[in-house]
Design a protein that fits this description.
The complex is a heterodimer of chains A (220) and B (365). Chain A has 220 residues and is mostly helical. Chain A has helices at 2-43, 53-66, 71-77, 79-86, 92-116, 120-128, 133-144, 146-164, 175-184, 189-218. Chain A contains ten helices and no strands. Classes of the chains: A mainly alpha (220), B alpha/beta (365). The A-B interface holds A 119, 121-122, 124-132, 135, 139-140, 143-144, 146, 217, 219-220 and B 52, 54, 78-82, 84, 86, 88, 90, 92-97, 105-106, 108-110, 137, 139, 153, 157, 163. The complex binds adenosine-5'-triphosphate (ATP) and magnesium ion.
């Protein structure tokens, strides 16, 4: 058992590193694109800053179509696109690509839902001051919704960690792959247990960080 | 300063269309406090939002400071908006920013340099009495303080016009008076033209120079506040006035009065007539009639006395009739009759409509 862990530990550490890499890159790319898409989704809705029924309908339908697809299916469904963009459909980068697209659509909805709760009066006040719509989005809309947005992104982060566990299916690495290869396939329950523990710790830390940031952003 | 020329605003279309503002023509003078009063849904907010083009007209013209804003594009409109301050019922402060940062926001939009911004924010917070709250967040302020911040923010870029949409409706009576006093100062010290939207006649009475009464999208009556109070033509106006003055007994109160005072009662309007008041006691003495005041109230509107007294008069009928005739030469008198022979059961309507006629006929120069 001891000898087992002396060889497993470096692999585990490498898996943690890979997971953190995949997750943070996805969070960055998907989180940013999702923010843009989410703001557009919110702003083009009837009565809002960039009201545009056509754009809203397209975005809305796109989000509704993509979001419910199980990731394990989605990852193969976007295969051709992945191949065209990054040149391969296997490995961590392919997974990051697929995760980023999925995260974009998931984030879009999260962002939209949090923006809907912002006080339209504040936006009206900014309009009355002569601020441009773009400025209002950047300096009023997003800052005012920051606390719930941070919590939304925390939720997203945990969703991405969940998605990243499937990376092994397309030749990627990370904790999910580690648990399957060294735990499940070798009937080593201990490895599965340790992996679960590591994931729990990562999620907990992320949640705590998110809560802390959100509280700071609230100014109460 | 602000002219509405046959302005109409319709929301929606077809069967669901709502005509929020209906053929309004109105001129608001530079330097005055103009108030728009009306019940919920009358179209007050829509009217005022047309001034800074937060809404666009369906037809007609809105001219602000000589410029027809209905003809402008979005970027020119932003320019116009920056020259008009606005305060809101719900304050609409940014919760994520400090008081100072909220006040600085319009200055940033107007591209003031950082040093000038800092200076101006300090000056504004001093003006509204919140210099010590610069670093506080809106959630740490009371309603009255929030509205002061709202006013400071609205004044930041030194606008010539301030629009106040129900600025005091979320505040308690004391705080309301504080905020109204501040608005009055803004008008007098800074010369800002203020448009005050309200559904409270008290607000009109406290600060406005002129008032327009709105009902169902139309301006049904407008003029100097004193004149509108003294001679309201429309039923809605009379109702608003009765909510603030309460100087005339309501039908219920009149019932109770008659119960306590079986004799003849008259309601004498107390107004400024040609600069003089109404000397009721002198008139009573002169006609040998005894009188006891049973109801009434006198207040100040536009710094002039305004109100009425209801008096139970005791004397022989001829003397009382002569007294009434005499008083009617200088003011408006309503004869309420006696318990046995009551007159004027709807004192509110008859009194004020009577007032309109009397003032129109006898009060003019
Ligand atoms: N954006 C809008 N879309 C559709 N209808 C509207 C819109 N804004 C106002 N209305 C309608 O126009 C009418 C006038 O509304 P407005 O808000 O101007 O009234 P108000 O006098 O300010 O009332 P309140 O005292 O309740 O604020 C109402 O019937 C309202 O429902
Ligand atoms: Mg309103």
């Amino acid at each position: 058992m001891n000898r087992d862990w002396s060889t497993l530990t470096p692999i585990l550490l490498e898996s943690i590193r890979e997971t953190l890499y995949m997750v943070s890159l996805t969070l960055l790319v998907g989180g940013f694109l999702g923010l843009v898409l989410g703001v557009l989704l919110y702003a083009t809705r009837k009565g809002n800053l960039l009201e545009n029924a056509f754009v809203f309908a397209i975005l809305n339908v796109a989000v509704n179509i993509v979001r419910p697809i199980p990731f394990i299916i989605f990852i193969t469904a976007v295969g051709p696109l992945t191949l065209a963009t990054i040149g391969t459909t296997i490995g961590n980068d392919a997974v990051i690509f697929a995760m980023s697209i999925m995260a974009t659509f998931v984030t879009a909805r999260i962002v939209e839902q949090n923006l809907v709760a912002t006080d339209p009066g504040v936006i009206e006040a900014a309009r009355a001051m002569g601020a441009s719509r773009f400025r209002i989005i950047l300096t009023v809309l997003i800052p005012e919704a920051l606390a719930p947005l941070i919590l939304g992104y925390t939720f997203l982060l945990i969703g991405i960690i969940d998605m990243s566990a499937l990376a092994g299916y397309v030749g990627g690495g990370g904790l999910g792959d580690f648990a399957i290869v060294y735990g499940y396939q070798r009937f080593n329950w201990q490895v599965t247990f340790v992996t679960v523990l590591v994931i729990i710790v990562i999620v907990q830390l992320a949640q705590m960080l998110g809560n802390w940031l959100a509280r700071k952003a609230l100014h109460r | 300063m602000i002219s509405f020329r046959d302005v109409t605003k319709v929301f929606g279309s077809g069967t669901g269309a709502v005509c929020a503002v209906d053929s309004v023509t109105l001129d608001i003078q530079r330097g005055e406090i103009f108030s728009v009063i009306g019940y919920s849904g009358a179209g007050k907010s829509t009217l005022v939002r047309l001034v800074n083009a937060l809404e666009t007209v369906t037809s007609g013209q809105v001219v602000v400071d000589g410029q027809d804003i209905t003809a402008l594009g979005e970027s020119e409109l932003r320019q116009v908006r920056a020259g008009i301050g606005m305060v809101f019922q719900q304050f609409n402060l940014m919760k994520s920013r400090t008081v100072a940062s909220n006040v600085a926001y319009p200055l940033k939009v107007a591209r003031w340099s950082k040093e000038r911004r800092k200076e101006r924010v300090a000056e504004l917070l001093e003006f509204v009495g919140l210099a010590d709250k610069a670093r506080a967040y809106p959630s740490q302020l009371s309603g009255g303080q929030k509205q002061r911040v709202g006013i400071a923010r609205a004044l930041a870029t030194q606008p010539a016009i301030l629009l106040a949409d129900e600025a005091t409706s979320a505040l308690d009576p004391d705080t309301t008076q504080d905020v109204l006093a501040l608005l009055k100062r803004v008008n007098q010290e800074l010369g800002v033209t203020i448009v005050v939207i309200t559904h409270e006649m008290d607000v009109v009475r406290s600060i406005a120079d002129r008032v327009a009464v709105m009902e169902a999208g139309r301006v049904i009556e407008h003029g100097p506040v004193y004149d509108v109070f003294a001679a309201p033509r429309e039923r809605a106006t009379q109702r608003f006035i009765s909510t603030t003055l309460r100087d005339r007994p309501s039908p219920d109160a009149l019932e109770r009065l008659r119960h306590r005072h079986p004799g003849r009662m008259i309601t004498v309007a107390v107004r400024e007539n040609d600069g003089r008041g109404v000397d009721v006691t002198a008139a009573l003495r002169e006609h040998g009639v005894a009188g006891s005041i049973v109801f009434g109230g006198i207040t100040e509107i536009d710094e002039r006395p305004f109100g009425s007294l209801t008096i139970e008069v005791d004397g022989d009928q001829a003397a009382v009739d002569a007294l009434i005739a005499d008083l009617r030469r200088s003011t408006d008198v309503q004869d309420l009759g006696t318990r046995e022979q009551p007159l004027g059961d709807d004192p509110l309507a008859s009194a004020h409509v009577g007032a309109a006629r009397d003032v129109g006929a006898g009060g003019g120069p």
